[in-house]
Amino acid sequence: MIALYKYRTRKAMTQAELAKMLGVTPNCITQWESGVRRPNVIMLKKLAELLECTADDLLEPIET
After folding, report:
1. How far apart are CA 36 and CA 52, in angstroms?
2. pLDDT value for 62
3. Counting beta carbons within 10 angstroms of the beta carbon of residue 1, is it exposed (0 to 12), middle (13 to 18) or buried (19 or more)?
4. Does the residue 10 lie in any domain?
5. Domain span holding position 39
6. Distance CA 29, CA 38 (A)
7. Any residues with CB less than 8 A from the CB of 37 and at least 6 apart, and which?
8. Number of domains present in the structure of the chain
9. What does the alpha-carbon distance between residue 1 and residue 9 come to, in Å, rounded to a whole number?
10. Which strand (E) or helix (H) includes residue 16?
11. CATH number for 54
């Protein structure tokens, strides 16, 4: 699992809200958070900007 969940919840954002801001489906956010898929470089940059962190922060592995 990657740290995306941690940073999204710190901003009190739902998966649906973040998905809408990025123009993706909530299922896409679920897949990123669970580690099934990873965001591409463009989405990673947008995520970091929206969540006010770095791309490295978002890709940091966390224990589940």
Report:
1. 23
2. 74
3. middle
4. yes
5. 4-59
6. 9
7. 28, 31
8. 1
9. 15
10. helix 15-22
11. 1.10.260.40
Q: How confident is the model at residue 1 (pLDDT cuts 50, 70, 90)?
A: low
Q: What is the pTM of this model?
A: 0.88
CA distances from 48 to 32, 45, 57 (A): 14, 5, 8
- Domain-embedded: residue 64: no
Residue pLDDT, tens place only, 20-40? 999 999 999 999 998 899 999
Place of tokens 């006010």: 52
Sign of the CA dihedral with 20 first, then 26, 32, and 34 last: positive
The C-alpha atoms of residue 48 and residue 32 are separated, in whole angstroms, by: 14
Task: Work out the number of other CB atoms within 10 angstroms of the CB of residue 45.
Answer: 13
d(CA 52, CA 10): 10
pLDDT confidence band for 14 (50 / 70 / 90):
very high
